[in-house]
Design goal:
- The protein is α+β, with helices and mostly antiparallel strands and 249 residues long.
- It has 3 domains: 60 residues; 89 residues, Jelly Rolls; 81 residues, Jelly Rolls, CATH 2.60.120.
- 25% of the residues lie in helices and 37% in strands.
- The chain contains 2 helices and 16 strands.
- The strands form 4 sheets. A 5-stranded antiparallel beta sheet has the order 1-2-9-4-7, with no helix packed on it. The protein has a 5-stranded antiparallel beta sheet with strand order 10-11-16-13-14, with no helix packed on it. Strands 3-8-5-6 form a 4-stranded antiparallel beta sheet, with no helix packed on it.
- A hairpin with a 2-residue loop joins strand 5 and strand 6.
- It is globular and about 100 Å long.
- About 7% of the residues have low confidence.
């Protein structure tokens, strides 16, 4: 009887082991099935995901130019346009206003109008006149972003520009020099050495003033609107002071 019981117990143990082994094999087969299924799904969906990503990138290309408003007056709107490297900025409708451009960074860009392409090299503080134009493509071909201060003129000149006997260029040519002038604007480049004081002079026209470096009452790249005034100026700091003034006729 004891031998029969031992035999039955041994058979039960063997049967249980067999069941466990079958279960393990079944689990392994199920695991392999799911692993194979997941790998197959991955192979099928990867190209689709890549296609969707490419499509989204095409729909949302990197921004070519960021526009920051600085001033808005009855005579002019002043903005800063920041162009990213190697990203064309397409102006399909062109630019309907005349404007003064002041470059805030060193750089190189191209401007294409129709079949004509122009390469433009500039340094910080360079100034250019840009008349209204048709469609064009501008591209920053530098390896870093560039910023351009744009003074967009809202209309034609009010009339002949008045002249003062105390015009700053006439009475203080050491510190005030004409960068360029046309029927719309006069652009002045202003430079004071440390601790220098200028002559009393008069401003008749409204003007947009850009500060090119830190000064006693302003920071580099500050932009302000100034009106008629008679005064003298002094650079009270130990550093040179440089500004650009765009007089609006």
């Amino acid at each position: 009887m004891r031998e029969d019981a031992a035999i039955r117990e041994d058979a039960a143990i063997r049967e249980d082991a067999a069941i466990r082994e079958d279960a393990a094999m079944c689990g392994l087969q199920i695991g392999n099935f799911w692993m194979s299924w997941l790998m197959r799904i991955t192979r099928l969906t990867a190209p689709l995901a890549l296609l969707l990503t490419s499509g989204l990138a095409a729909q949302n290309p990197p921004a070519s130019a960021a526009i920051t408003a600085r001033l808005d007056t009855p005579q002019a709107r002043v903005i800063v346009a920041t162009l990213q490297p190697r990203t064309p900025s397409i102006a399909r409708n062109g630019h309907v206003t005349d404007r003064v451009l002041i470059y805030l960074d060193n750089g190189v860009m191209t401007r294409k109008e129709g079949d004509q392409s122009t390469r433009i090299e500039f340094r910080r503080g360079d100034v250019r006149w840009r008349p209204a134009s048709g469609a064009y493509i501008a591209e920053n071909i530098s390896d870093h972003p560039i910023r351009i201060l744009e003074v967009d003129l809202k209309g034609p000149p009010a009339g002949p520009a008045p002249v003062s006997k105390l015009d700053p260029v006439a009475v203080d040519g050491k510190h005030y020099k004409v960068e360029f002038e046309n029927e719309h604007v006069r652009v002045l480049r202003i430079h004071y050495e440390p601790r220098e004081k200028g002559q009393t002079h008069e401003h008749i026209l409204n003007r947009v003033v850009l500060y090119l470096n830190d000064q006693t009452a302003a920071k580099a790249d500050d932009v302000r609107m100034a009106g008629a005034a008679t005064h003298s100026e002094e650079n009270a700091s130990d550093q040179p002071a440089d500004r650009i003034a765009v007089e609006l006729k």
